[in-house]
Structure formats: C-alpha cells, structure tokens
Amino acid sequence: MLEGIEDVGALTAGPWIYVVVAVSVLLDVFVPVLPSGVLVITAATAAAAGSGAATGKVPGEVPDILALTLCAATASVLGDLVAYRLARRGGARLDRAIARSRRLSAAQERLGTALARGGGALVVLARFAPAGRSVVSLGAGASHRRVRDFLPWSALAGLAWAVYSVALGYFGAQWLGATWLATAVSVAALFAAGAGATYLVRREPAA
C-alpha cells in the first residue's frame, strides 16, 4: 500500500497534480459527481508521505501543501464565479428551469435572504454539501445577487473547504501512516462533513 501512495506522491513534485486538481475542482460545480475532494485528499496524503510527515519527521515540503491548498481554493472560487455569471446571463429560460425545481427555488430564496441580511453562512455550508455548491452558485446568479455580496462568501467557502480537505489528507497520513487506509478514513471524514452540512442547509430557518 505504501508503495502505491509513494507512486502518487512522486506526482506532487511536478506541476501536473495542481493542474489536475484545479480542473477537477473548477468543473465539479457543473458536474458534482466529480471526486474533486477525494483527489485533493489523495494528493495531500501523497505530499505528506513525500515530506516525511507520515513518519513523524519535520515536513520538508510544506510549500507543496500550501500550493495544493491555494490551488484548490482558487479553483473553487473561479468555478463558483463561472457558474454565477452563466446563471446571471441565463435569462428567462434559466428562470423557468429554476422555477420547476423545488430544490433550486428554495435554495435561491434562502440564499437571497441570507445575503440580504449580510450573512453568507449558507454559502460556506453548501460548499461541503453534495451538489450544494452548484445550487448556491447558480441560485445567486439567477437571482441577480450582487457579486460583491456573493464573492467574499464564496472565497471563504472555497478556502475553508480546501483547508479542511488538505488537512484531512495531510494529518491522516501523519497519524495513520501513508497508506490507503489513511486516505479512506480521510475521505469518510469529508463525507461526514458533507452529511452534516446537508442537514444544516436543509433545516428550516428559525422563526
């Protein structure tokens, strides 16, 4: 198992891992089934193995971890903005499509209320929920929310998600060793956060 992780870890020394992560994270706003979170965790686990973190040594390649975090966060925000812009320009056809979906309509209404009150916790929570990022980004654009109201929360959401995902992979390797078991446990923790976020997003707002 360790050999497999080390093979993946060799990729972190080059630029391609960042390109693959960036493209995956950017596109999963449109194709939520893309395993971008799993990819980020696997890359972080491999980077930890290459840095010696899994053996308890002082990491020698922390900038790779930082670069991975910034790459994932930046791609997340860019993907949100692309979806936001496309939805904002979607016109009547997109409005009708949203109106036919109870989930999109409800999300659009709740997002509008949250942003109007000066809060965007819903945007951050939705980033962890399966397909939540897509619903929120499209809903913000379709309802013509101001980009200055949406962008800061999108940036916070992308950074929080990236830090959490990278930390799961990195510290999972440090605590459990650079094995596929560490990756599996980290992925399970990511899914658990997604389930919790989904529950909180779906809760009715307090009266």
Describe this structure in words.
The chain has 207 residues and is mostly helical. 78% of the residues lie in helices and 0% in strands. The chain has helices at residues 2-11, 16-27, 36-51, 62-88, 91-99, 102-116, 121-128, 132-142, 147-176, 180-202. It is elongated, with a radius of gyration of 18 Å. Residues 1-9 and 52-63 have low confidence and may be disordered.
State the total count of DSSP E strands. Answer: 0
- Identify low-pLDDT runs: 1-9, 52-63
Query: Biggest sheet: strands, sense, closure?
Result: none
Count up the helices.
Answer: 10
Evaluate the radius of gyration: 18 Å
List the helices and strands in order: HHHHHHHHHH
Residue-averaged pLDDT, rounded? Answer: 76
Distance between the termini: 52 Å
Strand content: under 5%
State the share of residues found in helices, binned by percent: over 70%
Q: What structural class do the secondary elements suggest?
A: mainly alpha
Shape: elongated
How do you describe this structure in short?
This protein is 78% helix and 0% strand.
Secondary structure: elements and pairs:
Elements: H1 2-11, H2 16-27, H3 36-51, H4 62-88, H5 91-99, H6 102-116, H7 121-128, H8 132-142, H9 147-176, H10 180-202
Helix pairs in contact: 1-3, 2-3, 2-4, 3-4, 3-9, 3-10, 4-8, 4-9, 6-8, 7-8, 7-9, 7-10, 9-10
Keywords:
mainly alpha, 10 helices, 78% helix, disordered N terminus, 207 residues, 0% strand
